[in-house]
Specification:
Layout (H helix, E strand, L loop, with lengths): L5 H30 L2 H8 L3 H7 L3 H24 L5 H18 L1 H18 L3 H25 L8 H19 L6 H17 L7
Helix pairs in contact: 1-2, 1-4, 1-6, 2-3, 4-6, 4-7, 5-6, 5-7, 5-8, 5-9, 6-7, 7-8, 8-9
């Protein structure tokens, strides 16, 4: 048997890391950071504990990696959607639909992103405050800028963008909770997402604009 190529080794490495990440998230949602042990993660990933330690030196190293990767994924999506050249109302619809659909397909991730702000200070230690600030800024900043743009262009009502953001995001979270309940039949999902988005936008769109 010929030795594996560097590409094959890298693929195996990435697959194993993804297994570990998926297992870490699952155990984290059950036990939290403090209650999770590396043995729990190895068992959930169906791999030897030593192999988990081969990739991550300890639990906190693993959780810093998981949090950082998923925070970056969220940042990339938010920026690519809300900072695009698309029309304001269309951007707000696309943004909401992504989170609603994700809540239906990956309900556990709704809980994950809801939980991590409270755990970032513990996971990142001395850097926790800075990481949390950056996370919040990256999550809310692009939305604020889109809302301000919409107000300037007359597409949205001339209200305080901070108030619009709070109400919009609060309503979106309610819709995400409904979509992640597991009680929405697939044939009704699209209609329900449309209804949630219409509710979100109805109060902020400037119909005179």
């Amino acid at each position: 048997m010929s030795p594996r190529s560097s590409e094959q080794n890298e693929k195996i490495r990435e697959e194993r890391i993804q297994q570990i990440i998926d297992a870490a998230i699952a155990v984290y949602l059950e036990k939290g950071v403090r209650g999770t042990e590396m043995g729990d993660i190895a068992k959930r990933a169906n791999m030897a504990r030593g192999l988990v330690y081969y990739y991550f030196k300890d639990k906190m190293d693993l959780f810093r990696f998981v949090f950082t990767r998923l925070i970056e994924e969220a940042k990339t999506y938010i920026s690519s959607t809300l900072l695009s050249d698309e029309e304001v109302i269309s951007k707000l619809r696309t943004y909401a639909r992504f989170y609603l659909r994700s809540s239906q397909l990956k309900p556990h991730m709704v809980q994950f992103y809801r939980n991590i702000p409270a755990d970032i200070p513990f996971v990142f230690g001395d850097k926790g405050e800075a990481v949390l600030k950056e996370y919040v800024d990256n999550a809310t900043g692009p939305l604020h800028r889109v809302l301000e743009q919409g107000i300037r262009e007359g597409k949205l009502k001339p209200l305080d963008p901070r108030l619009i953001s709070a109400v919009y995001w609060g309503g979106l979270m309610g819709g995400m909770n409904a979509m992640s309940s597991g009680q929405v039949p697939e044939e009704q999902a699209e209609r329900m997402m449309d209804d949630v988005i219409d509710i979100l936008l109805d109060g902020i769109v400037n119909k005179k604009g």
